[in-house]
Design goal:
alpha+beta, four-stranded antiparallel beta sheet, 27% strand
Amino acid sequence: MKRVTIYKDNEPLAEFPSIQKAAHFMKSELGRERFPWTIINKGIQDNEFYTHTNGAVYSFNNIDELARAKKGAIKGESIFIFYNN
């Protein structure tokens, strides 16, 4: 599963378990009628920032759980991932 962290003005704003949940949050945060898929996808894939009309700057970070576990294993940390099927 890929987690998404949203930053506002370089400060962590919220973290979500999926891109879809992040899109729901950003729709409300930005006061939009539609989901801001382009903003989120460009933020994750192309590392682009989004500047809202109110001057707030949003950025996104996407880390999948497997990559997070591998990163922790390299550092010598014990990380367990549980999946509910």
